[in-house]
Each structure stands twice: as C-alpha cells, then as structure tokens.
Amino acid sequence: MNFKNLTIKDIRNILTETDLEDFYHHYFEFLKEEDKKIKGFLFLNEELAYKTIKELKNKDRNLPLWGIPIAIKDNILVEGIKCTAGSKILENYTAVYDATVIKKLKQSGAIIVGKTNLDEFAMGSSTENSAFFQTLNPFDQTRVPGGSSGGSAAVVGAGLVPIALGSDTGGSIRQPAGFCGIYGLKPTYSAISRYGLIAMASSLDQIGPLAKDLDDLILVFRITRGKDELDSTSQNYVEKIKEIRKIGVPEEVFSLGLEKEVKDVFENFLEKIKEKFEIKKISLPSLPYALPTYYLIMTAEVSSNLARYDGIRYGLSYETDHLLEKYLNSRELGFGQEVKRRILLGTFVLSHGYYEAYYLKALKTRKFIYEDFQKAFKEVDLILMPTSPTLPFKLGEKTTDPLSMYLSDIFTVPINLAYLPALAFNIGWVNNLPVGAQIIGNLFEEESLFKFLKEIEIAKLTRT
Ligand code: GLN
User: Fold this and answer.
1) 0.85 exceeded by the pTM?
2) Catalytic residues, which ones?
3) How many domains does the chain fold into?
4) In this predicted model, what pLDDT tens digit does every residue of 112-139 receive, in sequence order?
C-alpha cells in the first residue's frame, strides 16, 4: 500500500475496505521509515494509538475523522504521553490532561500518531532551537523546514500525515507551511481554545492546522474552533463570509528585505490572479514597527509565562536542599540559549524604569498596527503578503545571528499583533524550493480566506 500524500478522503476510502488495526500496522512501519529522512517526529505514539484503535472499533464510523492519523506539535498536551515543548526542562514531563483541541479531535475519531519537533518553547524560525535534534526540509535535506512548528510542517510536507497541529505566536505555522509547500492557518486570536497549549506569549499564541489539502485543513479548523469554558479568551465562533473583489498588497512589503527570487514568484502570482480580482496597492505604515513591537511584547510575556519552570512544579529538578540553588540550577540546566535570551530581554523590558519606555510603548504601537489593518480593510476585502522574505535557508545559516533569524518573521508577526486570521499557501517554486504567501482577513473571516483560495483554484495556478 502506498501511504504517501494521502488525504483524509483517501484514508476514509481505504478504511472502508481495510481493517483499522491492519492499516495502522503498516502505516506505522511507513512512518518510521520515511521520518528518518526528515526527522519531523520527536516520538511516535504507537501504544496509545492502538488503544484508541480498539475503542474506535465500537464507535460510529461516520465521525468526521474516524481513523484519521494526526500529528501534534509537542507543545500541545495529550494525556498520558510526554510533552517536552522541545526543551530539556520538560524532557521527562508527561501530560496529565488533554488540551481542548485534542479532546475535540479524539471525539471526532482522530488517532494521534506522534508528537512533532519544534524550537524550544516555540521560540525560533527554523526548529534548530529544539533541545533534541534538527528537522530537515522535505524538499532539500540541507535546509531548514522553518519554525517553530517545523516538525509538523515537515511531516505534512513530506506526505507522511494529512494533518498536523501547530501553534503560531509570530508566524510559527505560516512560515514553516511556506517553507514546506503546504497550507497553514493561523486563526483569529480567540477562535480556538488555548487550553492545554504550553504558553509562550499568551496574547499572541494560537493553535492551528497544517495540511496538504485545503479541504482537510478546513475540516480540522471547523472541528477545533469555538468557545471553551477552560479558556476565558476563547469566543463563540460566528462565520463571516464576504464577497471578495479587492485584494490589497501593502507596498511596504517590497522594501523590507524581500529576496529577489521570492519577489519574482510573488509578482508572478499577482499577475495570475489579476484576472479574477482587483489587486490594489495599499499602505500599512506601521508595518516596519511590527518586528520590534513583537520582540518587546513577546519577550515580556515569555519571561512571565516561563517563571513557572522553577524545578519544583514541573520537569527537570536540580538535586539540592538549598531553594535558591534549586531554582537557579534547574533553569540554568533546563533552558537553552534562545529561551534564556528572551527571558532576560523580557525581564528587562518589564523592569522598573524601563516598563514605560519599552513595554507600554510597544502596547501602544500594537494598537497602531491593529488600526492600520482596520483602515486597510475599509479599502480592500483581503490582504496578501509573502510568508517570509527568503527561501528556506540552509541549516546553520542563521543560528549564530539571532537578528537575521528574527527577520524571517517580518511578514508574519504583524498579523498576530493585530489578532487577525491568515492562511499560508504555496504560490510557486524556485529550484524545487517552495515559496509561500499568506492571505489575511479581518477578525473571524477564516471562511473568506477559504473562499478566496477555492476561487483561484490554487492547485491549478501553482502546480509546477
Ligand atoms: N519565529 C518567531 C519567534 O521566534 C515566531 C515563533 C512562534 O510563532 N511561535 O518568536
């Protein structure tokens, strides 16, 4: 049986004729073999999967995800299995409950086949900050898959699973989706419950799906969204679909380090969709300020969210009778360099005397960014931007230069700061390397993003 590139529909068809357990015996062999090439999985979840399979045999086969394999970024809790967040500090931590999204997926019949690699605590753009190993780009194994949901993007991009979940605080679903040639949705802030997501920066974090097939992504989004009593920021989801005529392209995009090859593919794509939509150049003057704003707000929230890893409540605990020594050494040994850098920066921007100068100012700038987008949505229906200014870069290329790594997020962070939904998709290829773009809507307009992609029949336009 060929397991590569199966969609949910394909698997449902196979399962009408194949025993579920038989299917998974072969499927897990396939996953183990194929994942050696990209190392997207931190670990597979066979034991629990077979338990679910037994339970599923007595459940309604018409459940929307009955028997469908799903990969989960390893910062989302699945009861009874490890959740490391890509960090040494949680290396031996086992989750004691299911995240709300996991509960919903299980209720729909899904089978969680494994947890995927990520940058430590989702901080990074290449998955090289994982404390465990590097994940490789499915199209070129000398390059990164993007990050921080690099494991999820790689296993979907390589055709190992139809669907994976990731999290996006400043681009961590969309940038790797772009680098791996697939779809990735960063939903409206509050559209999907964050209960059971290991927090990075709570006012920016969102869980979302990555998929090779648009219908699969839509299905999983619809299953996972909605109000959850366990996340007070989550909201009832009310679909908003609008007519799509005008697509805005911010002129600032072209002056923010966009690589020529990416620019060419992007402009070529604009040419192609011109027949269907009016393309309008717009201005988002606050766009150049988004990256510094993000790195102030995000680090402030990181420093407070990660205070809970004290060597006592969770994970790694340094052996000593001295309390302060326990705190200091557990954190010193448990956290990697990038995480420490962000905790230091965040503690600094929140400290007395700097709070007004940095943190408060950043909050005000965030408001400007939000308002800029709101103004733009009075002129155009949706906004289109690249997901990243560069092609997937080489392993090691940016690891010694944090600033150049941060610049990878220049087009994705504004969307999180403005709470908006954005869907990343493939717009073309350069030397067998994928190029991604993101279509951005106003709050709760995910369905309009789907409609846009359906209207341009993206598969036809971008296939090489
Ligand atoms: N790459 C960005 C960062 O390092 C975004 C991370 C994310 O979205 N989790 O902060």
Assistant:
1) yes
2) 73, 148, 172
3) 1
4) 999 999 999 999 999 999 999 999 999 9
